[in-house]
Amino acid sequence: MAQAETRRLAAIMFTDMVGFPSVVYAVQCAQHVQTQFRAYNTEKETAEQIHVRIGIHLGDIVQRDGDVFGDGVNIASRLQALAEPDTICISHLIYQAVEKKLPLGTVVSLGRPRLKNIAQRFPVYELLPEQPKGVLYQWVKRQHEQAIAEEERAVALDPNNALANFFLADVLGIAGRPAEGIEFVKKAMRLNPRYPVFYANTLGWSYLFLGRHEEAVAALCVCVCGRMVRERGLW
User: Fold this and answer.
1) Do 29 and 94 form a contact (C-beta atoms < 8 A)?
2) What are the φ and ψ backbone dihedral angles of 108, each rounded to 5 degrees?
3) What pTM, to 2 d.p., does this model score?
């Protein structure tokens, strides 16, 4: 261990761990890798395509017998697992270091996710190959009216789809319109009597935001009790 080399590096995870002298080089390399794979995939059948996930973090490592260890390695590995195929997942340290130095394209905040065996929680960002579409992206970008419009179209196309009604209720609540959302989540519950417990969670929070505390407690109790029953295999 005394002979092991400890240094700062940007760690990039895909099939191997690679060290870079600069975080800028690490991100540039990751972007180049994804660009090359996208070009390769356009000419290949689905079974022959290659899709990789990349995670980048800045941290201390220890090199020993050709292997690398340390928090920098562990966090990069967790970020790689968090990334979607064809994307790059970076820690807040990386983002701060490169946001004004490199064109990052479409950046989506993933909040402060809980990473396995990592006590610290910090902002994480995903670099996407193109601007995404759909209701989930609209939520992330706080474009609530567009998200509501997306879900209203889904409900109009299939009024008896429980999940579509639930998503409309959820985004209405996020947009600050919980009173309207309550009717849709109740409809979702009627359409699917064995509804997932998160339906009750959304209903409870909607009541809470409206100051209807007794109804909020009742709905959230259903959520908690329902989860306990299912964990015991009784539902």
Assistant:
1) no
2) -120, 125
3) 0.51
Give me the chain's average pLDDT, please: 78
* Residue 7 host element (H or E): strand 5-13
**2-11, 54-63, 143-152, 175-184: which has the minimum mean pLDDT?**
2-11
Q: Which domains can be identified in the chain, with CATH numbers?
A: 5-128 (3.30.70.1230), 135-231 (1.25.40.10)
Residue 185 near residue 165, CB atoms below 8 Å: yes
- Residue 165 CB contacts under 8 Å (≥ 6 apart), including other chains: 155, 159, 184, 185, 187, 188, 191
pLDDT digits (tens, 9 = 90+) for 134-172: 555 555 545 677 778 888 989 999 999 998 999 999 888
54-64/124-128 β-pairing: unpaired
